[in-house]
Structure formats: structure tokens, C-alpha cells
Design a protein that fits this description.
The complex is a heterodimer of chains A (about 300) and B (about 250). Chain A is an alpha/beta fold and about 300 residues long. Chain A is built from eleven helices and 14 strands. The two termini of chain A are about 30 Å apart. In chain A, the strands form three sheets. Chain A has a six-stranded mixed beta sheet, sandwiched between helices. A four-stranded antiparallel beta sheet of chain A has the order 2-1-4-5. Chain A has a four-stranded antiparallel beta sheet with strand order 12-13-11-14. With about 250 residues, chain B is mainly alpha-helical. Chain B has one domain. Chain B has twelve helices and no strands. The chains are: A alpha/beta (about 300), B mainly alpha (about 250). At the A-B interface, helix 2 and helix 3 of A face helix 1 and helix 5 of B.
Chain lengths: ~300, ~250
Amino acid sequence: MIKVEQLTKKYAGVTGIDQISFEVGKGEIVGFLGPNGAGKTTTMRILASYMPASSGRATVAGFDVFSESLKARRHIGYLPESVPLYHDMRVNEYLRYRGALKALSGKRLKNRIGVIKELCGLREVGRKKIAGLSKGFRQRVGLAEAMIHEPDLLILDEPTIGLDPNQIRQVRELIKSLGERHTILLSTHILSEVEATCSRVIIINRGRIEASDTPENLVNQLRTSGLLRLEVKSGSEDPVPHLEEIAGVREVRAVSNGEWRCFEIRIEANSDPREQIFQLAVGRKWVIRELSKERATLEDAFV
Amino acid sequence: MRRFFTLLARELSAFYFSPIAYVVLFFFLILNGLSFWFALALLSRGPSELTLIQAFFNTLFFWIAYLLVFPVITMRLFAEEFKLGTIETLMTAPVRDWEVVASKYLAALIFYLSMWLPSILYFLIFSWLGNRSVVGTGAQIWGPYLLLLAMGTFNVSLGCLASSLTSNQIIAAMMGLVFVLGTFFLTMINYIIDSSSSPLVHDLTAYVAQLDHMESFSRGIIDTRPLVFYPTFALLVLVMTYHVFQYRRWKL
């Protein structure tokens, strides 16, 4: 669906993206992950035919995004990060207008508007002016108009930014369900989001692709250590030297003191000294309130 | 073509379904009313050869109101889209650049024409209430409006060009004013520079003299030269606007 070859974009001497190449196949949900300024928005704008690249080639559904821009745009639904909308229009009016621009008309347009309003939860706000909508609803309107013409490819730039947790969950569910029929490329710097929705992650940093794989593979590849949390009441005894003696324990860091002491224990990869810690506590008559292992997340891989 | 009409319909609704349009119309009608009153005052001073139409369309009031309208109605067109960022969703939809430029231009032109329609009422009311011959006859009535249409095509295009050059509406308005006044100034050159010192300048500016055009049209002389000149130059300016728009939209 998307094929990017050696794409480069330079802005006034600064290189935005530097010879990146990747492919997105039909039906995939791919997440673009990277810190701010990495080049995610630039790449998406080039793919959406909004900006030309300085060099390199990009095709969507087989059409070059620069030379066959009009044809490529027919297959794309794009939601920019800022979700620009016409504030003086009403939701229905806006959706009708965008649908008509994308060559929908008559009965089909009416049907599609009904369907996506239902899908995006916009049924009650149809007659409201866009200026009077909250951010969450505006985001939904943007998403609705992006998919109104049932595009093969959806390009979503930070689709959940600025939403409250409830709305974030709803949008993610929506994206996942859309992934069954559309190809989706979304960008984010929220790691849990790619873990939750994407089948593949492309990590981009400073204009270069650092990694491209499934979330699980990336986490496995980059797992070098794990973290245990321990909350223990050990009386006057200092547990740290005893903890450090246990095999597999790399480093012990006290988080808080008091009657209950909290520790963050860095352990070697693929080791699990929790049983030894438990036995240690039992032997010394300490009381354990919490002993848990934090799953290495994409955040560790990211960092 | 359907896309063009969709864009046009949207641009027109942006004009007419916003309160700003009616505020602008309101103040424009005040200016028109003042202009009409001024024309009447002129005529009531004593017997004169001027018809009401001539008195109305050749006063300072009229020209000031006429010229100031263009930057006001066109400053928003392109500048706002760039400023708000809606240009991004507009240009990632499968629309052609020329469709965008043409629809905005045409919407502004239609709005401009609708601003002048109420003034016809003045003349209708006056001819109904009083002496019809004072108003004017035949071509003296619709001549000026035809010229307004032609000049409008040109000046609206100048406003569009100004708006496409910037993201700031105020700058767009100023630039539009300068463009419109600048071309109007060519008329004034006729009056400033003596005809004997540089006949070439005099002849050239005679072709573009907006003041003179209005004067002859309001006398009933329908000169086809300005009727060809204005739309042709409007097309030229629109092509320039198209290229500026393309440059801004693709270069980024």
C-alpha cells in the first residue's frame, strides 16, 4: 500500500528526514514512533501529498504521491495533528462538504455520513457548530471526515493527543476496528498506544529509521534488564546489603523510607530472584507488602 | 466540475452564513446611502445637466467606498486558510489547485456584486417618487453597473492575489489596498501630468483610467474597450494568484 524509497526532506538547511525507506502492506496497522521532531509529521505530510520531498520516492496504492498526486489522494484519508476544521460550519454540513469534495454524492454520501457518525459517536452533535465542540469531539469529526470516502489508507497524525483517558480508549478501539478494513499508518509518541493498537512499529529518530518490527519483537530484542518493586517492613535492619547478595540482583535503589521501605531492584535479564527475596524475608522475619515485577515495556526500548 | 461547484458553494456559504458579511454589508450600505444623499445635495443646489446616476457614480464618496470594499472582502480568502491550517485538509483532498483558486475568486466576486444590488433600489425609489428623467435613461442606468461588474472582476482578482501572498489577514488587506489604489492611481496620473509633456504616458493611462471610464459609462456611452480590458487583466492576475498559491502550497 505504501512504498517509501530513500525519502529525504530538507528545510532550509536542516534535514527533516534523511533517506528513509519502508513499506506498509495492505491491512497493516503501523505505528510511527519517535520523539518530537523526529520526522513523523514530515513523512506523513509527504505521503498525504501535502508536501513534496526533497528527494526520493513515495507511492501510495501504486501512485506516486508527487507526480500522480490527485490519484494518490483519492486513496488516502488524512488527519493532521492540529485537526484543522472550519469553525463556522456545523458537523453535518462539514461532513457533507468533505464527502462531496471526495467525490461522494447523493444517496451514497448520505449513507456514509450516517455510518461514520455512528462509528465515531457523532450522532448527537450533528447540528452543532464545530466551534462549540470539545477537543475530543473535534478529533472525532476530523477522524470521521478522514474516512468518509472509505479510503484504502488512513494516515493519522497523533490521533489521541489531548484526549482524556476515556476518549483515548474509544479512539483506540475505533482504530483497531478500522484496521480490519483499512490500512492504517499512525504516529504517536505515546508508547502504550502502539503496543495497544499496532501490528508493527517503526521507530524514527532525528530523521532516520532506527527500527521496524512488531512491538513484542522490539521489546524482546532490547530487553537488557528488568525491574522489581519491593515494599518491606524490616524493622531496624537495613535490607539492602542482603538484597544485593542475591544472585541476579544488579542494583538496589531505595525509593522511600519509614516503617515500610520501598526499593526498586534492577535485575539481570531473564532472571527472577523473587523467590530468593521472599525466602530472605521469611528467614529474617520481615514483612513483605509488595513484590512485583515490572514488565519491560516499549518505553525501555524507546529510551 | 462538480468539485468546483462544491467548493464554490462552501465559499459562498462562508460569506453569506457568517455575521461578518452582514456587518460589512450594513456599513457599506451606510456609505452608499451617504453617497446617494451627497449626490442629491449636489443636484438640489441648482439646475444642472447632471443626471442622478452621474452625480452618484462620480463623487469622491463613491470611489472611496468602492475601492475600500475590495481588500475587506478578499483579505480572508487565502490568508485565513493558511493561518488556520485548514489548507492542510483542503489540499490533501483530491481537489485541483485551480479549482480552489477559481472558487474563492468567484465567491468573492458574487459577494461584491450582491453588495451593489441594493443601490439599484435608490434609483428605482427615486424614479417612482419623482422625476424619472432626472435619474437617467436607458444605458445611463445599467451602464455603470456593467462597468462595476467589469472593474469588479479586476479588483477582486487583485485582492485575491494579495490574500494568497500572506498568512496574515491584515497584511493581506493592506497589500490589497495598495494594489487596488495603485492601479487606481494610474487614473490620477492623467490629471497630474500635463498632457503635453508626455503624450505617451497620457495615452497609455487613458486606457486604464477608471475615473474616465465611469464618467463615460454614466453618461450612457458603453465603451467596449474597458469591458475587455478589466476581465482580461483579471485573468492575468488570477493566473498569478494561481502560481503563488501553487508555490506556497507545494514549497512549504
